[in-house]
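Supplementary Methods, section 5.1.

A reviewer requested that the exact input to the structure prediction be made available. We therefore reproduce it here, unchanged from the version used in the analyses.
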Amino acid sequence: MKKHLNLILRITAIILIVLFYFGYKIYKSVAGSEEITGKKENVPQPITEMPPLTKGTADWPNWRGPKLDGKSAFTGIKTDWTKGLEKLWEVDYLCQGIANASWSAPVIQGNRLVVTGRDDKNDLVFCINADNGKLMWMKSYAAEAGTSHGPGARATPFIDDNRVYTFGRSGDLACWMLEDGKLLWKKNVKELGGAEPQWGCSSSPFVFENKVIVQGGGKALVIAYNKMTGEVVWKSMEGDAGYSASTVITIENEPKLLVYHAKALSLLNPFDGKEIWRTPWETEYGVNATTPVVEKNLIFHTAGYGMGGQALEVKKDGFSVKWKNDVIASQHSDPIVIDGYIYGYSGESSGHNGKFKCVEMATGKEIWSTDEISWGTIIYADGYLICFSVKGNLYLVKPNPKGFQKVGELNKAMADVTNPAWTVPVIANGKLYLRYLQRLVCYNLKA
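The structure derived from this sequence is encoded token-by-token as follows.
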């Protein structure tokens, strides 16, 4: 009897441990903050002599780059990675504490690199010298934030000439002087009836002419502020915010705004915010997180959770669905179009085992698929795709519809990766920037 009781107790203990483990995993994936591990530093003192603003020949001032297509203008990249890449500098202080995850990518104009971070009570904004990694200025503001995947920003800043715009997960949109970090104005979308979605306000601010545009959700699904003053220019629609950046498409010489919110892809007039049309697209969790891809009069958009993707052919008086399938179902990894082919990841980041694919843009036909590189994010430069896996590895891929062609790889390009490395790589002025939580690494990419 005693032996049977001991066996029952052991089995019960094992079951409880397993349930606790998987319950903790589910909690972390939905409501918890990724733990900050590896090397951590205190925020250093900024430099005392501020160099003047400069501009580079291949800056990266905003999400998806200057042409909103995920392509860097830099040419002359190093393609022989047999001896690795030269690390120019590294900082390890963007996230302070152990539960203040922040994911936004850096933006670069000349010698200024701006990236956001987080401590226990504040959103942080850092300006780092892109050439040597020295801290130029750091600013902050108090913000209460949820813990789902961390309280730090997801949205990537937007540099517009001598100003930079940041958007925190709690809905704070702020405008700063790029030169010295002076705060020019700050608004919160909740002031207009905005509502933070489950995983935080995430739409990267988008500057269009005299406006800066974000998704506010709630009673202010999309908001356009005057970029100079912060005054409201217009607000449009109601509903749950998505997690995607806005972008533009030009239709018969007229610019239109594409907004991928929680339940649909909508086309708006960017001058007054009026919705022109929408195509429903609602995932199980309202997560539309990839940026719609525009190629002439075609739009491709995709989402995970089994949704797949859809291509729309757009005309001035409306749109038609060109094709719809599940060949690419990307949770939050933006694809890139090259010479009429879509290159990108399909699958969800949690599994680490998504496929990298080539799909014909005009037809939706899968040309090839590979699992040789694990799920990740991509950027294009000088005829090559650079893929950064969620495990911290880096791959150089030659886009070729005839087949997958891996040219180089750099294992553990980002060290101490214990959670998925979600942040997209950035290339500007011959340098490659990788971000993982508190860490930002700069590699020399020049041949």
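The chain has one helix and 33 strands. These observations are discussed further in the main text.
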